[in-house]
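Help needed: design a sequence for this.
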């Protein structure tokens, strides 16, 4: 079936080098593209507050490591940051559903315009800032160390071949802005992307015992969660947190109990007796 496509206004000046933004709709879902077939975000038109894409839902598995409301802290007290706005699904969720102060950092002004025109992104206010700037520059120049509770990283260009920022310096800058116990969730995807190499870089910065991954989606997105001194709850506590998340946000697509079957601690490649590299066994 052909998709209806809408183009946002053409870029001008310095933005001209950035990819154009197009929007398509299919079976009640609106999609964001950066001038290519690759989906950069989505929203179900009749349920705009729901998290439509599987991998975006899994990025919110970082909530399992945070105390839920009623455990002595309130989620809404923290700061949530998104590097890469996309269709603003996580931005809307942390701002509206969680009630957190939220900052979204996006380089392409056309993505910001499209998010406001077609994906229900609210205007800036006391609890929401959308900044047009480079993510690494924001981390180095504007972010306050130890200030972020939830950091979501989803940085891809129009080719979607590999993350735009994916080296140890970048992940060190991410770790620096997290508060004690804060969490970073990263989407890893792309034809030239290597999950093992990216996860190893994250582990080199955060520590191997502070890195977890979720099972890949059908489309090949793998979410990695890394903590800044995060405490791993007991199995019973995780089950209670997952149930609490589902009770509050299950109608928005957060099947948190299923995340517990997907998540596993990161393990490096282990050398076999014959000297070859082998993937460490993971239980599902």
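Sure. Designed sequence:
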């Amino acid at each position: 079936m052909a998709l209806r496509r809408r183009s946002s206004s053409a870029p001008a000046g310095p933005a001209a080098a950035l990819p154009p933004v197009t929007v398509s709709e299919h079976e009640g879902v609106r999609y964001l593209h950066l001038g290519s077939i690759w989906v950069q975000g989505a929203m179900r038109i009749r349920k705009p507050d729901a998290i439509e894409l599987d991998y975006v839902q899994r990025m919110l598995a970082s909530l399992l490591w945070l105390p839920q409301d009623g455990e002595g802290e309130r989620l809404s007290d923290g700061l949530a940051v998104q590097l890469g706005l996309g269709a603003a699904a996580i931005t809307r969720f942390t701002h509206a559903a969680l009630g957190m102060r939220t900052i979204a950092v996006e380089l392409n002004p056309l993505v910001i315009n499209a998010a406001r025109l077609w994906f229900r992104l609210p205007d800036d206010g006391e609890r929401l800032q959308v900044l047009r700037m480079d993510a690494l520059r924001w981390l180095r120049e504007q972010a306050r160390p130890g200030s972020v509770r939830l950091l979501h990283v989803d940085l891809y260009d129009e080719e979607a071949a590999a993350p735009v920022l994916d080296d140890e310096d970048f992940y060190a800058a991410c770790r620096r802005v997290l508060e004690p116990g804060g969490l970073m969730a990263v989407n890893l995807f792309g034809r030239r992307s290597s999950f093992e190499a990216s996860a190893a870089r994250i582990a080199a910065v955060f520590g191997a015992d502070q890195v977890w991954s979720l099972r890949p989606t059908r489309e090949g997105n793998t979410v990695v969660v890394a903590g800044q001194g995060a405490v791993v709850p007991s199995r019973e506590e995780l089950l209670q947190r997952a149930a609490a998340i589902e009770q509050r946000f299950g109608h928005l697509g957060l099947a948190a109990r299923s995340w517990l079957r997907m998540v596993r601690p990161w393990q490096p490649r282990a050398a076999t007796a014959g000297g070859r590299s082998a993937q460490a066994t993971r239980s599902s």
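The CA atoms of residues 107 and 133 lie 5 Å apart.
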